[in-house]
Amino acid sequence: MAVRILLVDDHPIVRQGLRTLLEGRPGWEVVGEASDGIEALDKVEDLQPDVVVLDVTMPRMNGLEACRLIQQKRKTSLEVLFVTQHDSPQMMREALDAGARGYVVKSNAARDLLEAVEAVSQHRVFTALARGPHASC
Amino acid sequence: MKLRILLADDHEIVRRGLCSLLQKREGWEVCGEASDGREAVDMAKQLKPDVVIVDIGMPYLNGLDTTRQLLQLDPNFKVIVLTITDSDQVIREALDAGARGFVLKSDAARDLVAAVEALQSKRMFFTPRVNDLVLAGFLEKGHAISRNEPPDLPTLTAREREVTQLLAEGKSSKEVAVLLNLSTKTVETHRSNIMRKLSLHSIRDLVVYAIKNNIIQIQMPPQLRPSETTVA
């Protein structure tokens, strides 16, 4: 299934790592990158991705705030997946409350990200703290 | 002959990004990847890389102590420290540990290739912030920041710093003993010496000391970051 992905993280080297991982999957395309929440909102509007892979801690506008605004303005069936350093159930709850469909810890992104993108692109919930993944409908 | 680079970062996704960046350069090769400082030291012993790139905030052995151990093994190792912060204290500690390059993670995509090139040419590479600090130190004291300057705090041995990090990461004395291949009794002795030297009275005090002195790093949630602003 073709999936169009927008990457949002303030560290270009992390975006590069995510891109190499995601573009290894046939049919998946990274259509754009943003380095903070404000830029992400513009890119969502312009590029209409299927999945936004979003960091939590970023300058100017953090990922939680960006996620809430994306949910308010979204016109398509776009889904948000957080990839973050915060290995915390509380932060995961906040992310899901903000409207995200998925939550992956950065230290395990190489293990969990592909499965997470696949799940959220099919509108299923995928959450994984460092202990291990959990997917549900 | 290829320039051989060893990468040490606990995040595989960051290592992927770094690999992708560095291997675009003809004649450069990432000869190994380590996910913590102890693994980096072991791999460096075996692989003898030309350049080692170490993240500061790694588990088991942080990047600063990794740098110290690498240079103790072989003073010719060329180490670039990758960090998320360029606070004065971190810069001073990185210089003191013997790093020859200092690159902010946020600028790695821009600066890292230049840093490796500099070390390849037997030069050092620092961000403008580090250059300012070194210059300020030179002007204030009449000399550059000395690598032999006595620390303000009681000095821990390399082994005590390793034990401090592992205890602060929440490991028990028994777990530390297994990781460092020591007896539990030896670890308990190190622990007592650390607490006595630093005048600490609990593990909580030790964790605070470890955070304040960059032995471990914590990630603050965005709600607790005072400098961060959000736009509604």
Counting copies of identical and different chains, the oligomeric state is: heterodimer
Secondary structure: number of strands of chain A: 7
SSE string of chain A, helix = H, strand = E? Answer: EHEHEHEHEHEE
CATH homologous superfamily classification of the largest domain in chain B: Response regulator
Largest interface: A-B, 33 and 27 residues
The percentage of residues in β strands of chain B lies in 5-15%
Question: Any idea of the CATH topology of chain A?
Answer: Rossmann fold
CATH topology heading of the largest domain in chain B = Rossmann fold
Q: Write down the overall mean pLDDT of chain A.
A: 90
- How would you write the strand order of the largest sheet of chain B? 2-1-3-4-5-6
Shape of chain A: globular
Strand content of chain A: 25-35%
Query: Which segments of chain B are poorly predicted (pLDDT under 50) over 5 or more consecutive residues?
Result: 143-151, 226-232
Strand segment count of chain B = 6
**Low-confidence runs of at least 5 consecutive residues of chain A:** none
Q: What is the 3D shape of chain B?
A: globular
The overall number of domains of chain B is 2
Structure summarized in a few sentences:
The complex is a heterodimer of chains A (137) and B (232). Chain A has 137 residues and is of the alpha/beta class.
Explain this structure.
- The complex is a heterodimer of chains A (137) and B (232).
- Chain A is of the alpha/beta class.
- Chain A has one domain: Rossmann fold.
- Helices cover 40% and strands 27% of the residues of chain A.
- Chain A starts with a strand and ends with a strand.
- Chain B folds into 2 domains: 139 residues, Rossmann fold, CATH 3.40.50; 83 residues, Winged helix-like DNA-binding domain superfamily/Winged helix DNA-binding domain (Arc Repressor Mutant, subunit A, Orthogonal Bundle), CATH 1.10.10.
- Chain B has 10 helices and 6 strands.
- The longest helix of chain B has 15 residues.
- The C terminus of chain B is likely disordered.
- The chains are: A alpha/beta (137), B alpha/beta (232).
- At the A-B interface, helix 1, helix 3 and helix 5 of A face helix 1 and helix 5 of B.
